[in-house]
Amino acid sequence: MAKAIRQIKKEGRTREEEQAEAVAGIVRELADNSEAILTMISIVKNLHEMGALDTLSALIEKRNDVGVIAVQQLNKPQMHKTIKNGINAFNFLGTLNPDQLKTMLSGLSKGMERAADSAENEETPSLWQLGKSMRTPETRATMAMMMEFLQGMGEGLNEVPRHNK
Questions:
Q1: What is the Cα–Cα distance from 28 to 39, expressed in whole angstroms?
Q2: Which residues of 59-70 are buried (b: 16+ CB within 10 A; e: fewer)?
Q3: Which Pfam family, just one, is annotated for this protein (predicted)?
Q4: What are the helix (H) ranges across 4-135?
Q5: Exposure string over 27-46, b if 16+ CB within 10 A, otherwise e
Q6: Which of 118, 94, 119, 106 is nearest to 145 (CA)?
Q7: DSSP single-letter state for residue 160
Q8: Are 18 and 12 in contact (CB under 8 A)?
Q9: What does pTM read for this prediction?
Q10: What per-residue confidence (pLDDT) applies to 124?
Q11: What is the C-alpha separation between 99 and 105, in angstroms, rounded?
Q12: Minimum mean pLDDT range among 26-35, 63-72, 120-129, 136-145
């Protein structure tokens, strides 16, 4: 009669086999994601060339000192106002129609170019020339837009309760 099996002998993998399997898995992942890895290497190379990695490394080494300084700066009353103003600025930008803003900024850019040119000219226009320029379509369009802007701003100011100090 056969003997009863009392012990099962497991054939485990050796440490070398486990390491070889891990290395094979890493190589497989490198091959599958080679484009992303090469891009990452390029980014790290550029960061190293511009000195950003040294700066980041120093910041990490001195993280406690940097953290203390950052908290001290954030606790200043001016910083609270700066943060609130930044949030309000982003909220304001979110309310603007991008097409209208593009039109306004384009006009502002051209106006600044002309203002810079006239400043270089150093010739002050006479009152007659200023009055004459009021009749041009460009000046009239600008004045009409500015009047609408001023009226809208006045409406907004009247909606906000005033605090007399």
A1: 18
A2: eeeeeeeeeeee
A3: DUF1641
A4: 15-32, 34-49, 52-61, 63-74, 77-95, 98-121, 127-133
A5: eeeeeeeeeeeeeeeeeeee
A6: 106
A7: S
A8: no
A9: 0.44
A10: 82
A11: 10
A12: 120-129
For residue 149, the tally of other CB atoms under 10 A from its CB is 11
Q: How far apart are CA 161 and CA 144, in angstroms?
A: 28
SS3 74: helix
Rounded-to-integer distance, Cα 115 and Cα 121, Å: 10
Sequence-distant (6+) residues with CB within 8 A of 73 are 79
- Tokens for 161? 């309760």
164's tokens: 């007399």
Alpha-carbon torsion 94, 99, 104, 107, what sign? positive
Please tell me the distance from the alpha carbon of residue 24 to that of residue 1, in angstroms, as a whole number: 47
Tokens coding 27: 């190589």
Which residues lie below 8 Å from residue 102, measured CB to CB, with a gap of 6+?
none
In the block, tokens 């039109």 appear at 103
Cα–Cα distance for residue pair 20/27, rounded to 1 Å: 10
**Residue 11: pLDDT band with limits 50, 70, 90:** confident
For residue 8, the number of C-alpha atoms closer than 13 Å in the C-beta half-sphere is: 2
Note whether 134 and 140 are within 8 A (CB). Answer: yes
Q: Is 133 within 8 Å of 139 (Cβ atoms)? A: yes
